[in-house]
């Protein structure tokens, strides 16, 4: 009996198994095995869940990787410790690259590229943080963690910096 009981969407839903390429863990051992897309709904919450798992199952391999819309989320390299990060889609739909080694949730753009926070142009000391407004969780901005700096830039869910706004984000680069 396979460990991958959740795979039975192939039977009930009539979906074909989607193969997402070779399993990298198996490939490293010289074994040919594929990653298959697992998708199902959480029975209690109805929340869709999806990821890719090695077709050999948990006992023989156990490799899993997150997917987004049926595609494998590319990994990244943690800017802090150079470890391989894991792409994650957060509840609000934003993307992160989580580093298990140093437990850093790196910001990521739409394509899961890691975003390095810009240095605050005012104090030149702190890295800006990416936030959303409390009242409007869909409105994002970058700002210095030091409130006294008072500079910020409008942003979006993918962490870009919007420069075309007439907001008082024009930095005072010189001291
Ligand atoms: Zn495998
Ligand atoms: Zn790291
Ligand atoms: Zn600052």
Notes on the protein architecture:
- This protein is mainly β.
- The protein has three domains: 1-72, no CATH class; 74-115, no CATH class; 117-175, no CATH class.
- Helices cover 7% and strands 33% of the residues.
- It contains three helices and 13 strands, in the order αβαββαββββββββββ.
- The radius of gyration is 21 Å and the shape is elongated.
- Residues 1-14 and 167-175 have low confidence and may be disordered.
- It binds zinc ion (ZN) (3 copies).
- One zinc ion binds at residues 23, 25-26, 33, 54, 56, 61, 63.
- One zinc ion is lined by residues 23, 25-26, 33, 54, 56, 61, 63.
Q: Which properties best describe this structure?
A:
5-stranded antiparallel sheet; 3 helices; single chain; elongated; 7% helix; binds zinc ion; 175 residues; 33% strand; 13 strands
Write the SSE topology:
Layout: H1 9-12, E1 19-22, H2 24-28, E2 34-41, E3 48-54, H3 57-60, E4 64-68, E5 71-72, E6 76-77, E7 84-89, E8 95-99, E9 104-108, E10 129-132, E11 140-143, E12 152-155, E13 161-162
Antiparallel strand pairs: 1-2, 2-3, 3-4, 4-5, 6-7, 7-8, 8-9, 10-11, 11-12, 12-13
Bound molecules: zinc ion (3 copies).
The site of one zinc ion (ZN) has 8 residues, from helix 2.
Uncertain spans: 1-14, 167-175
Residue-averaged pLDDT: 87
Q: What portion of residues is helical?
A: under 10%
Summed up, the helix count is 3
Run of helices and strands: HEHEEHEEEEEEEEEE
Strand order of the largest sheet: 1-2-3-4-5
Sheet with the most strands?
5 strands, antiparallel
- Any ligands, ions or cofactors bound here, and which? zinc ion
Q: What's the overall geometry?
A: elongated
User: Radius of gyration from the CA trace?
Assistant: 21 Å
Total DSSP E strands? 13
SS-derived structural category: mainly beta
Count of structural domains: 3
């Amino acid at each position: 009996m396979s460990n991958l009981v959740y795979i039975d969407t192939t039977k009930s839903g009539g979906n074909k198994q989607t193969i997402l390429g070779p399993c990298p863990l198996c490939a490293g051992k010289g074994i040919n095995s594929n990653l298959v897309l697992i998708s199902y709904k959480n029975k209690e919450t109805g929340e869709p869940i999806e990821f890719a798992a090695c077709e050999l199952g948990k006992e023989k391999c156990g490799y899993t990787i997150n997917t987004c819309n049926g595609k494998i989320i590319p990994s990244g390299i943690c800017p802090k410790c150079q470890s391989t990060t894991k792409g994650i889609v957060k509840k609000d739909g934003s993307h992160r690259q989580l580093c298990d080694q140093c437990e850093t949730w790196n910001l990521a753009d739409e394509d899961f590229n890691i975003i390095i926070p810009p240095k605050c142009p005012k104090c030149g000391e702190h890295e800006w943080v990416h936030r959303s407004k409390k009242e409007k969780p869909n409105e994002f901005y970058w700002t210095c963690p030091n409130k006294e700096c008072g500079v910020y830039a409008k942003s979006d869910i993918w962490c870009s910096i919007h420069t075309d706004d007439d907001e008082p984000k024009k930095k005072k680069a010189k001291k």
